[in-house]
Structure formats: C-alpha cells, structure tokens
Amino acid sequence: MPTNTYDCIIVGAGYAGLSAAKALSENGKSILVLEARDRVGGRAWTKHLDDGTYEDYGAMFLGVQQPNMYKLASEYDIRTYDVPLQGKSVFRYKGQTKKYSSDLLPPLPIWGLIDAGRVLKTFENMSAKVNLEEPWKTENAKKLDHQTLAEWVRLKSWTRSGKDIMRLPFELIWGADISQVSMLHALWYCKAGVSLTVLSTNDQGAQMQLMVGGGQAVANCIQKQLGSGAVHLEEPVTAVDHQDEDEHVVVKTAKGVYTANRVIFATPPPIILKVDFTPPLPTQKVKLLESMPMGKYWKIMATYSKPFWREMGLRGEVVSPDGYIGLMNDVSPIDGEYGMVIGFIAASKALAFLEMTQQQREKIVLQELGSGFGSEGGKPTRLSIHSMMNEKWSGGCPVGVPLPGTWTSLGEWVRKPIGRVHWAGTETSTSWSGYMEGAVCSGLRAAAEVMAVMGKK
Ligand SMILES: Cc1cc2nc3c(=O)[nH]c(=O)nc-3n(C[C@H](O)[C@H](O)[C@H](O)COP(=O)(O)OP(=O)(O)OC[C@H]3O[C@@H](n4cnc5c(N)ncnc54)[C@H](O)[C@@H]3O)c2cc1C
C-alpha cells in the first residue's frame, strides 16, 4: 500500500475521532488521524501548570450510565473520584443568598417550588416518549419542533421563580437561550442523557465524578496508544475530494495529500463547513450544518490554597438563576491538596460577558464568588476566565444545538454517510449527545459503519 494511503482517515482528534481511530486500529485497519490543533482532546482541554496544578477549560465531569468513558478510564488506569456531596448548596436569587440541602430543587417560594416540580415532571414524562434514533418520528414531532422551549415553559409554568429555575439548567446544558431551542430537541437531548434530572445533578447525575489528571487524560492515552505517526497534529483538513466514489477519497491539508478507502469526520458540525468538498456536500447536509450553531459559554476556574468551603459545611455548589455565573461546583483534586471551584456563564450572559473588558469580567466573577462563599471566596490565589467561543476549531461551546424546525426537516442527514464520508462527533450520538460519552459512542458507531462496508469489499 503506498505510504499515504489508509483504510480510513479520521478528521479531528477529540473523543469521537480518537475512539473511532482506536476501534479501527484494534481491528487491523490502517488509520490516520488529522487534527487541526497542537493537541488532542478537542473540547476536552486540560492545561497543566508549572506549579503542578491543572485547569480544565473544557469537559471534565463523568456521569452515571456512561459505560464507554468509564471503560476507557479503567483501561488506562485513570482513577475517578466523586464530586463532593457532603454539605449544603448555596442559592443566590433576587438579591438573597440561602443555603439548602436538596439535590435538585432550591429554596424557592412555596408556589415556585410546586410549580417547578410540576413542570419538571411533565417535561420528564414527555421526554421519555421521544424517539431517540429518529426524533422526527416522535408523536407530534413537527409541532414540538416548531415550539420553542421558552414558549413551552411560558405556557406550563405560572410563577416567575418556576420559569427561572426551569430555564437555568437548559442554558447551562447548551449555552443557548431557550428561545432558540425547540421543545423536540430539548426532550430528545434529555432522554439521550437519561433525563433532565440526571443532566442537572451531581448525585447519580451527569456531574457525578472527575478523572484524576483532568478531562483530557483519556484522550492523551488514546493518542499514545495509536502512536505518534498515526496522529498528525497542527494539520487541519482543508479539502476532501470524493468524486471518485467507486475507488477512494482524497483528503488534503497544507502539508500533504492522503488517500483512504473511507473518511470519518469527527468535528463540531458547523466547523465541517470550513472544508472544501468536491463534489459539494448535498444541500440538505450543508443546511443542517448551518442550522446547528455552537453554544455560548464561559468557564471560570478559581483556585484556593484549600477547599475552605468544606469547613463551612458547604459542598462548593452555588446555583444562581439571575447571576452571571449560573452554577459553581467544587472540582478540587482528589486529595484536596488545593481548592478549586469552577463556574459557568451561559447563553445571553455569555454574550454580555464578551462585551466587557477582562477587568470588568474579573470584578463580577470575584463579587459572585464572594457572595457564594463569603469573603474568602472573593480572594482566589488564581483566577482563570476562559471561553472556546472564539476558538477556530470549536466555534463555540459546549455543544452544537439545532435551531427550531431542524430535526423534522433535516434530521435524517445527521448520521447518513455521503459516499465514502462518515459522520461522528458528539452531536451525532443518540446516547449522551453533547458529552464525552456521546463523542465516544459516535466514534464507535462510525468505526462500525466503516468496518461493515470494508468487510464487504
Ligand atoms: C466548557 C465545556 C465544558 C464541558 N463540560 C463537559 C463535561 O463536564 N462532561 C462532558 O462529558 N462533556 C462536557 N463538555 C462537552 C464535551 O467537551 C464534548 O461533548 C466532547 O468533548 C466533544 O467531542 P468530539 O470529539 O465530538 O468533538 P471535539 O472535542 O470538538 O473534537 C473535534 C476535533 O476536531 C478538530 N478539528 C476541527 N476541524 C478540523 C479540521 N478541518 N481538520 C482537522 N481537525 C479538525 C478540533 O480541533 C477538535 O480537536 C464540555 C464542553 C465544553 C466546551
């Protein structure tokens, strides 16, 4: 086989691309992974600092019912540990700061609490009925896909606080305003991640555990297993020529031209549009990719000499529907050697943050840390405020969200191979879409597609 010819070329070395490459290579296929950035991991990026600490700018939590990520962590001897659940959470809302014990519903006025509980139950029941594989075949799919989540919440919830508390988890999950997300997508996404309750919680939820070494640790291990020759960093794919559909596909970068039997794209959906396809992708596929904008998100990381809030009987969680930082969590290392709190600023608040100077952002973040954890909270030894919104190879974060009407008009193009080109990436997964687990599932599914067709030829 000529040097630059492979069974499969994988575009993107995030969890989706790396999982596809691992599965194919373990099944005897020759692979090449082409990655635009100077590192693997994509939206999982752990920065190791000179003082021995590390910060996760992207994904870090593992959740309940995520067998593939846990299998990988165990395969590479990466320890996982629980996010602390002992102690009270803090609720900041309408100028008041209250401590509470409940894992899900915070101390709202009684009518707000009843309202939110009722709306949540209705949502969960509807979500359980969605068709995961083909959401466009769900009963009343068209109606649900043209109704925004904001409209639905407005109709179902009759208190201000109920509305606010239903809005917050969704904004945090997608980094999108709920007026830009269809009810069908909301129901589908929550079922893909078990339920809205699971997606919003630590205890037996999506934010249950952390990996020692950070969210990128497993990706680094896969890269090592594949070998340096198999993963080309800093080599973005610029063009794909698949006109010789009966023979092969040609993949071009600024550094080389490669030929493969199959190609798997494992990048965020809108980023695929940067690549020049010959012949062009079908219009429906292009429209789908254009209709899945990436979310708007900032992540803050505040480091302290120790997790001092634990001594105050707090678990490090702060929930704030009307603050800039909607949610904070304790992500201190397993040995508690130092303390770390992360926080998320999502959707329209993330856009407002873009308009500010770094000094203005720091002032707000320190104020909110202080309000959540007392004066010590406002004095971290290090503060990082980061966003992947303007990173060329992510285009936003944490996930691409289809606009209302997209699932029912273009949804069938999400995974459908086009000639020799296959589609992975967390957004294409029917299980844990939007999460590392979903990325791995999508990579394994795309690898299975490639093996199935190659086995026949
Ligand atoms: C701030 C933040 C917090 C998050 N928190 C969590 C969490 O706690 N738990 C969780 O499970 N998930 C979390 N997520 C989501 C999670 O990061 C993603 O779902 C997952 O990492 C996506 O993996 P992927 O492989 O599908 O895509 P990506 O990780 O985006 O990988 C795609 C890769 O393709 C590369 N690429 C793009 N274009 C090209 C090109 N033309 N040529 C070559 N390479 C290209 C990119 O550089 C990138 O490396 C978070 C995300 C963010 C941003």
Query: So, CATH architecture of the domain at 6-42 and 60-79 and 212-293 and 401-455?
Result: 3-Layer(bba) Sandwich
Q: How much helix is in the residues?
A: 25-40%
| Bound chemical compounds | flavin-adenine dinucleotide
Distance between the termini: 16 Å
Q: Give the overall form.
A: globular
The largest pleated sheet is described as: 8 strands, mixed
CATH class type of the domain at 6-42 and 60-79 and 212-293 and 401-455:
Alpha Beta
Structural category is alpha/beta
SS element count, helices: 14
Beta-strand level of the residues, as a percent range?
15-25%
Mean pLDDT: 96
| CATH topology-level name of the domain at 6-42 and 60-79 and 212-293 and 401-455 | FAD/NAD(P)-binding domain
Radius of gyration equals: 22 Å
According to DSSP, the number of beta strands is: 20
Low-confidence runs: none
CATH fourth-tier homologous superfamily of the domain at 6-42 and 60-79 and 212-293 and 401-455? FAD/NAD(P)-binding domain
